[in-house]
Amino acid sequence: MPDTVLPELAALEKIIDQGGQRLDARVVHTVEMLSGERFPIHAISLGNPDPGAPAMGFFGGIHGLEGIGAEVVIAYLQNVVMRLPWDLALNQQLEQVRLVFMPIVNPGGMWAATRANPNGVDLMRNAPVDALDRVPFLIGGQRLSAGLPWYRGKPGAPMEAESRALCEVVHQELLSRPFSIALDCHSGFGISDRLWFPFAHTRKPIAHLPELHALHEIFLQAHAYHPYIIEPQSAQYLTHGDLWDHLYMQACNEPSRTFLPLTLEMGSWRWIKKNPRQLFSRMGIFNPLINHRLQRVLRRHMPLLDFLSRAAESHERWVPAPEARVQRRADALAAWY
Rounded CA gap, 228 and 231, in Å? Predict the structure, then answer.
């Protein structure tokens, strides 16, 4: 059966065509459904390919039900591609930084309107990481059945192909560099928009807490009235199998490497509060269904994505010096723990 059209995938492939040779675009995996549909997983990069340059990665669509995450990443990629022919400042920026986009990690789940991939596995519970403390029942990851949400997969089984594809891109494009940031876009938790950082499997602070505190400070300086609650994910709940915990711990095997993974968790309960009928729609629980609200959400988050691209490019100007890390860590512990 020929490849089936998925609206978000069609929009992404149109942008890839518009970017042309300015983009390094490749298919890292093709998902084949039992019903015969086939969906590529695209990775798109642009900017400085030098392995010594910093990088910023944007990821979305890990949960198929959360289409707004993919749309945010696609909207920012389109913004960048459309500015390439005329924006001198953007082209100068791309001489210093590598931008990486993986907007639809789970196209099979998006097509089926499921949180999990076509095998019933929740990709954000799929990494070989076990929580060190108690996790909430089911939501923290379970191995009982693929028929229940938050299924981790069989014990000892390899990670799902989509998870491996994400890890491959992160290793090649981000972890190979001395400094990188990742932003993974989701929706569904609470009323407020949150920016989470690891860990999800333990309440222990991560090693790069000073760098995260410094990043938080310059974000406040640039966006004093931002809408986000910025906190470790462990402040809300713990989980097994978090992909970003897994990748962060691998990055820490190289002491000279700094990798800061962030998760944007868009608070979809706000959309339900404004339109309670969305509770009767599976997609409505996780996405704004009215067009003007969708447009407002996309506009709301563009400044964050642009800020992170610039922060990665100029990281040497704000990353704390070795002698300042002890105080930075103390300030971060006081703020977040």
Answer: 9
How many Å apart are CA 41 and CA 27, to the nearest integer?
6
Measured from the Cβ of residue 150, the count of other Cβ atoms closer than 10 Å reads 23
Please report how many Cα atoms fall inside a 13 Å half-sphere around the Cα of residue 45, on the Cβ side.
21
The two three-digit tokens of residue 139, written as one number: 């939501």
Structure-block tokens of residue 248? 């962060």
Radius of gyration of the chain (CA): 19
CA distance 128 to 158: 9
Measure the CA–CA gap between 122 and 101, rounded to whole angstroms. 21
Q: Taking the CB of residue 165, how many other CB atoms lie within 10 A of it?
A: 23
pTM: 0.97
Confidence of residue 4 (pLDDT cuts 50, 70, 90): low
| Structure confidence by residue, pLDDT tens digits, 83-139 | 999 999 999 999 999 999 999 999 999 999 999 999 999 999 999 999 999 999 999
Positive or negative, the CA dihedral 16, 105, 32, 9 is: negative
Distance (Å, whole) CA 82 – CA 67: 22
- Please answer whether residues 146 and 218 qualify as being in contact, where contact means their C-beta atoms are separated by less than 8 angstroms: no
3-state secondary structure of 151: strand
Residue 230 region by backbone torsions, left for phi larger than 0, else alpha for psi between -120 and 50, else beta: beta
Dist. CA 213–CA 189, nearest whole Å: 23
Quick: pLDDT tens for 225-234: 999 999 999 9
Distance of CA 12 to the CA centre of its chain: 16
d(CA 238, CA 67): 24
d(CA 247, CA 128) in angstroms, rounded, equals 10
Report CA 197 to chain centroid distance, whole Å.
11
* Token pair in block for residue 28: 């890292």
Torsion over CA: 80, 85, 91, 97 (sign): positive
